[in-house]
Structure prediction request, 191 residues.
Amino acid sequence: MGLDIHIVTDNYGEICSADYYDEKNDYFNKHSLSRTFCNLMCRQNVISHEPELQQIGKIINIDLSPLYEMERYPEQESMEFFLGNAESEEERQSILDKAEADKEKLKGNIDIVKQTIDNLIAKLNSIPNLPSLLIPTDFDTLNNQSYFSDFQLDKGKGYIDNNFGQDIRNFSRFLEYAKSKGTSTVWFNYG
Prediction:
């Protein structure tokens, strides 16, 4: 088992109806992000050099901070943990205030996230060998040569063995679907 990443919405109940899980629609394969994408998002906390996603942002001159900001949404479970470990009412209130500010900052972010993802796709479609442009790493948990290669091809089955291109296209398809259902705010959940 490993850590997974999910895109959550402010109207998640409407998005993930029984119709969403009907196999004939194949939304799982069209919208899922791989565990490798999960590891990519977490790289900034585990490596000493510049993480691959930030390198990619520099290579193609795109600000990818809207993606990192999606990690900051305060989920109920983590809030309970932090509040349970607060040593004073002042610390507790500080945690609540920060959580509210983080929620407010993400409010209505779907358009900027969609624009960021679509710009990422457009620019990476013209780069033939992305792995060769990334800093070599001794801690290559992503398998950079495979994951970042063949950007325009879908190598996986919607989740297993996706490459970066497929993950980003799945991300874009999910955002498009979510917008069609009235979503205005999106964030990441790890589990």
Observations:
- The chain has a mean pLDDT of 91.
